[in-house]
Amino acid sequence: MNPAADVDPARVEAETRAWVRRAVIGLGLCPFAGAADARGLVRYVVSDARDIDALLDDLVAEIHRIADADPSSLETTLLIHPHVLNDFDDYNDFLDIADAALDELDLTGELQVASFHPDYRFADTDEDDVTNASNRSPYPLLQLLREASIERAIDSGLDTDAVVEANLETLERLGHPGWDALKAAFRRDAELELQGTRGSAGGSDLPPAGLDGGGCSGPLAPTPPSGSGGDAGSRDG
Asked: Would 103 be classed as within a structural domain?
């Protein structure tokens, strides 16, 4: 899913939504993600930013939006930025800027930024380690999520260490062939969704793609991060 200069925002959003439903929810990478998706509490935003300054402007705007919104109407935001920070090292560096933005707005401790990238690599892992796939999204994105949602999940008995171990085992069982097949499924799901959307005006009866998220609740991050996604051991080096 290589970003292109003239990428279709609708396709970017559709592929990202398919990834959430097929991988994050479908593989159980996040045990509390389904209800936010099923209840329509996930905001998908495709940024047209072509440089870091423009992306930061978009991020700050989305921070204000989720901070001002009632959690019953908006649980988490995925800010997808296909045109900028396609290099993982550059993306990784930007996470400090994202955290600083929260700090400047006095929202550290209320909101978090979780990190996902097509070339995501956890510290102390090889680039081709399949467990990196837990944070590998179709396009670079920043997830805004509420600290209170994570705290509720932990208070309800969520064992975050067990979640991490389960994710590693799931991805190791899946292997690279399985992950590649899943990525192909993202694209197929997105194409069906796009055809269904276009068909609503032109007669197609193809339904939107997606998996039933079941009874989970909470944000979509595969594991509750400590600080930003980078501070949870994801930053390379």
From this structure: yes
Tell the residue number behind the tokens 């200069």, with chain if given.
Answer: 5
- 226, two tokens: 């400590």
Instruction: Write out the chain's pLDDT in tens, 237 residues.
Output: 444 557 899 999 999 999 999 999 999 888 767 878 999 999 999 999 999 999 999 999 999 999 999 999 999 999 999 999 999 999 999 999 999 999 999 999 999 999 999 999 999 899 999 999 999 999 999 999 999 988 887 888 778 888 889 999 999 999 999 999 999 999 999 999 999 865 443 332 222 333 233 323 334 554 433 333 444 344 343
Distance CA 139, CA 11 (A): 11
What domain count does the chain have? 1
Which is nearest to 27 in space by CA: 181, 148, 140? Answer: 181
Tell me whether residue 3 is in a domain.
no
- Compute the distance between CA of residue 8 and CA of residue 4 in angstroms, rounded to an integer: 9
Domain assignment of residue 237, yes or no: no
Per DSSP, the residues of 166-196 read HHHHHHHHHHHHHHHHHHHHHHHHHHHHHHH
Which has the closest alpha carbon to 144: 89, 189, 105, 86? 105
Q: In what order do the strands lie in the sheet with 42-46?
A: 42-46, 76-80, 141-146, 111-116
Q: What token pair was written down for 236?
A: 């390379």
Q: Domain residues for 73?
A: 9-232
Domain membership of residue 1 (yes or no) is: no
Q: What are the distances in angstroms from CA 87 to CA 15, 90, 170? A: 19, 5, 27
For residue 143, the cross-strand partners are 78, 114
